[in-house]
Here is the input.
Amino acid sequence: MDAESYTDLVPLIFMGVVFFTVAVGALYWSSKRGQLRDFDKQARTIFTDEEPEGEVSDSFPENNKKL
Amino acid sequence: MPNSYNSSPYSSRSESVRAELSEIDTSIRSAAIFFVISAIGWLMLGTVFALLAAVKSHSPDFAGAFEFLTFGRVRSAHLNAMALGWASNIIFAVGLWIMARLCRAPIQHKGILLIAGIFWNIGLTIGVFGILSGDMTSVEWLEIPRYATPLLAFSYALIGVWGVIAFRFRKGDHVYVSQWYILAALFWFPWLYVVAQVMIIWFPARGVVQSVTNWWFAHNVLGLWFTPMALATAYYLIPKVLGRPIYSYYLSVLGFWSLAIFYNWAGIHHLIGGPIPVWLISAGIVASVMMVIPVIVVGINHHMSIVGMHKQVWRSPTLRFVVFGAISYTLVSIIGSSMALRTVNEITHFTHFTVGHAHHGVYAFFTMIMFGGVYYMMPRLLKCEWPSAGLIKVHFWGCAIGITIMVVALQVGGWIQGMEMKNAEIPFLQVVQNTIPWLKARSVSGLFLTVGHCAFALNFFWMLLAAGTLRAKEGPTLFANKSKEISVG
Here is the structure.
């Protein structure tokens, strides 16, 4: 590859940089919004009254019939 | 064993909460069912293509009389049917469902989502038909002819935007790690696809740059589209099924951000030894090895979340599949990082080892987790249990045994092939002939996978039919046996 044809790669490298910048920007946003604090509470957001913490919510169909 | 009536959805004491989750599930039901049906259709078709390609690779004369069934076409049809048909449709179903649930935001205007889904599948049908009829491009992972791609890109935009809309109108400030993964993947995929299409097909850059773009795209489809969606599903389902929060939420966030920031350089390792600047390859190798960090982080986190509850994993169809996938993720990623090292790559490059690695990732990791996702999602959408536990077990064992045989055969055979190719004293034809037993083993593995897929499809359509009958009889509200329970209680 000739030295001058390195310029062909500029769009690709530019995209890599944009990708990286967007990711860093999103990380900055998330830290500003407090997403990186109080991890314990965040981990529990998936549980609701319907599917609460402490209860197994899936089993083979035949196991259900026994109950 | 906890009471399954309480642990299943729609059984909350609180009417308002119940309405909320079931409203969300209902809002996405028709679209999600459509995507799962399409995904299973493509899975079965892709399996047929896969079997044809597998048999042809050791018996080239098999079905050789038909032009549209030649190896090159069938193999590419298999790839596209699986990657864009099975994988992407199942992502649209499971990913959007998890997104809507975590955002606590029902999907609005679901008709548009459904129509976009129909167009996606029409575009793909045209594309796969184009591949079989000989119109395919020569670019791996982008074989679909250019008359089908704009429709695919357009319908994707209409589908992906629903995840973003759900995120925009989420309730509460928390963003769970699965939401991060899904949201990021919904942005990454269209970007990758459009850039690759433009730089390779529509306004082609110079040859070498095309190859860099090609592998940047192809590897990122795995790492920034399939992987985040499967990890999002695992991060949602493992704690959800076990009823216990993830071991370390901190580690999960660390894993996400290291993937988001470092992954996209990794694809260049496909071009080790190729005619591109060496520093670019070195950067790709560094990025590939750095991926060990998120992988170890995710592996430790998933493992520790399950410790002490292994029996529950075995009792849950969802977790059987998800945990199989999660273990495969650790294995395939560590193998992948080491394959990026120049000394290892000298042996594995251009051998069946790479093919084995690709299936290890897309099948043993991604597909198995998505099967788990479907097993959890469908009863909640249809309010009806899976009809047959036996078929679920056949599905699991067929797939687990099949993919294990495939990965072991291709990687052991591929390694031997690589060593033999480096030995100038062995004639090339001899090297090719020595791979035949391993390729036959792959065809056998295909039979196991086919059995698994048939069991899955049968169970799914049986359930769909049963749910339809149930709804016609009793109205759509609750499980049949549960409504009795509630009326007694």
In short: DSSP finds three helices and no strands in chain A.
